[in-house]
Specification:
Strand order of the largest sheet: 2-1-3-4
Helix content: 25-40%
Largest sheet: 4 strands, parallel
Order of helices and strands: EEHHEHEHEHEHHEHEH
Number of domains: 2
Number of strands: 8
């Protein structure tokens, strides 16, 4: 098969189909985290939204963050990406505005997977959501992701009481080096608590983009399918960069 070798000029760098809008953070990110480029077997393009600290987004729910995220999405589009995501599931509340601002697909949060996952389950099952902060995950985030808790039965468990997971991200200067084996134990305890509290949970969606590195451990501990932002990114990448199939007779 003859390949087209013509390329359009106009970009500084090439080959990154997925753009990722990052919060303004400096905590450790091991492979599996959305902020570690080795998580992906294809190139991605990062853009940090300056001043977008976790407290402004999650605790304060600062509406003035919308504009810098919209501008960040537009910058990634200008750089040539084919789809855009973010480094925090709580950005689902800005999903519609960011999607309207650019001409490429935007998928702000793994919460967008919840209705799809629910359709895979028996009618007497729920979707479990493991989140960085349970009390701060609200209906506005679900509705931003395109569904509501009236439509999809869910059970939410948060990691806000953890001794390492949250504090190491919120105050990275106090945690210059992290033992992620200990973090994983903390995450697994929360996942077990989720299914203990709601045995009818048929699958788990990880809201937090810092949880996919623990997905395998969560699955071993709970016996449930686990969905997260990394699996969603891989799916979208396969859609915007379609593989060509060459058959042989």
């Amino acid at each position: 098969m003859k390949r087209d070798r013509k390329y359009r000029a106009g970009y500084n760098v090439y080959g990154q189909a997925i753009g990722i809008l990052m919060l303004d953070t400096t905590f450790a990110r091991p492979p599996g985290d959305i902020g570690n480029a080795t998580t992906f077997d294809f190139p991605v393009l990062y853009r940090t939204v300056e001043g977008a600290e976790w407290s402004r987004l999650i605790a304060e729910r600062d509406p003035t963050l919308l504009e810098p995220f919209v501008e960040g999405a537009r910058a990634l589009e200008r750089a040539g990406v084919k789809a855009i995501t973010t480094s925090c599931g709580f950005l689902a509340r800005f999903q519609r505005q960011m999607a309207e601002a650019v001409a490429v697909p935007v998928f702000s949060s793994a919460l967008m997977l919840v209705p799809m996952v629910y359709q895979m389950l028996k009618r007497d099952q729920r979707v479990g959501i493991l989140t960085a902060n349970g009390p701060e995950l609200r209906e506005e985030h679900f509705r931003g992701a395109g569904w509501s808790s009236d439509e999809v039965p869910i059970h939410v468990t948060g990691l806000e009481e953890g001794e390492l997971f949250g504090p190491s991200q919120h105050e990275p200067e106090l945690y210059p080096e992290i033992d992620f084996a200990l973090v994983e134990q903390e995450v697994v305890r929360a996942a077990r608590r989720l299914v203990d509290e709601a045995p009818d949970v048929g699958a788990i969606v990880l809201e937090c983009t810092n949880l996919p590195q623990h997905a395998a451990a969560i699955q071993r501990a709970t016996g449930r399918p686990v969905f997260d932002i990394v699996s969603l990114i891989k799916m979208v990448h396969s859609c915007v960069v379609q593989r060509e199939y060459v058959g042989y007779q």
